Amino acid sequence: MSLLSAATTATAQDVPATRLVSVSKTYPGAAGTVLHGVSVHFPQRALTAVMGPSGSGKTTLLHCAAGLDRPTEGQVLLGDTDLATCDERQLTLIRRGRVGFVFQQFNLLPMLTAYENVALPLRLDGRRPDRARILEALRQVGLEKQAGRRPAQLSGGQQQRVAIARTLVAEPGIVYADEPTGSLDRATGRQVMGLLRDLVDRAGRTVVMVTHDPAAAARADRVVYLVDGHVVGTDPAPTVERINARLTAWEN
Ligand SMILES: Nc1ncnc2c1ncn2[C@@H]1O[C@H](COP(=O)(O)OP(=O)(O)OP(=O)(O)O)[C@@H](O)[C@H]1O
Description:
Elements: E1 18-27, E2 32-42, E3 47-51, H1 58-66, E4 73-78, E5 81-82, H2 88-97, E6 99-103, H3 114-124, H4 131-140, H5 156-170, E7 174-178, H6 186-201, E8 206-210, H7 214-217, E9 222-227, E10 230-235, H8 240-251
Parallel strand pairs: 3-8, 3-9, 6-7, 7-8
Antiparallel strand pairs: 1-2, 1-4, 4-5, 9-10
């Protein structure tokens, strides 16, 4: 079966995939408080983009939402699981099973082939990698023929597609992407955005993506704007023009 048509129904339709309630985050040292009582939700089966000036706290927000970091105050709910009540072991299980990650720098293991990188989440989760399923994930991102290549033998766009195949194979309900097109040229970025859209439109997943790229954000269903650690607005119908108008307003 196509991994892109295998919609998951881990949580009820009307519960947001993830909800942050009054989340604050303070780092020791110069950075101080970077999130100030942020309340925001990420609807299921939607692609949400998070935009904001550099240093506004976007990655911190994503890491708190994904259980990669803990907020100083406030609540993060993944479906109906309160991450604050989870110990490190439970958080690790959640990150392996329910959440997927796509990073700007791809984060593939350099010594492993594309095939082995895609198989890795299943191995880490104690599941036996099914060869047909891994090849199907690589086929869906157009890289079946490159299964035996290591990351250094692939272009940036191909590496990002391997990272997306790695996400597909683990079938998480929600995928967090931090600047997924940030290292790619425009055409390759468009291709990667197409795959992230497919995750939502065909596979029924939820995607939350931090981006500086108006063209990428315009492919989202909603844009959440973050400035100085505060959510300052949400756009339910983003277009490149509307996003650019916001960015210009910030610059001025
Ligand atoms: N682990 C950390 N320890 C201390 N300070 C941190 C840490 N991570 C982030 N910061 C600080 O928190 C602030 C917000 O960082 P964050 O990476 O969340 O912003 P951002 O909006 O994603 O920025 P950019 O668009 O430049 O990637 C910055 O001042 C940063 O230096």
